[in-house]
Structure formats: structure tokens, C-alpha cells
């Protein structure tokens, strides 16, 4: 799937606000698009917190 348009919306959102929400139904790719954005926007490592797994 081509996600470049979604990544563009996220970049535009961060230009006007320090927080951007990614909303959608379960299993539609919200985490994947957030990870893709992070990988393109920065070279820093990321920490993923899964609320369903407390460990």
C-alpha cells in the first residue's frame, strides 16, 4: 500500500502541533504508519509501549 499521502498528513500535522493523533479501526495500520514516519523523520531509536502487555 502506498502510504506517502498519510505520511504527508502526519508531517503537516506536526508543523502546527506538537501532538498528532492517528485514528482508525483495529488492525488498519496505525502503528505501522507511525513507525514509518518515525524512521523517516529521525535516526533516533524508538521505544514501543504496548498497553495490553504490561511487561
Distance between the termini: 32 Å
Main beta-sheet strand count, sense and barrel state: none
Q: Please work out how many helical segments DSSP would assign.
A: 2
Shape: globular
Order of helices and strands: HH
Instruction: Classify the secondary structure makeup into a structural class.
Output: mainly alpha
Poorly predicted runs are: none
Describe the protein's architecture and organization.
By secondary structure, the chain is mostly helical. The chain has helices at residues 4-16, 30-41. The model has no long low-confidence stretch (mean pLDDT 86). Helix 1 (4-16) crosses helix 2 (30-41). The N and C termini lie far apart (32 Å). The chain is built from two helices and no strands. The longest helix has 13 residues, at 4-16.
What descriptors fit this protein?
55 residues; 2 helices; mainly alpha
Amino acid at each position: 500500500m502506498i502510504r506517502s499521502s498519510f505520511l504527508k498528513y502526519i508531517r503537516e500535522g506536526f508543523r502546527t502541533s506538537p501532538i498528532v493523533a492517528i485514528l482508525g479501526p483495529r488492525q488498519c495500520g496505525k502503528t505501522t504508519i507511525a513507525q514509518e514516519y518515525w524512521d523517516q523523520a529521525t535516526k533516533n531509536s524508538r521505544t514501543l509501549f504496548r498497553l495490553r502487555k504490561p511487561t
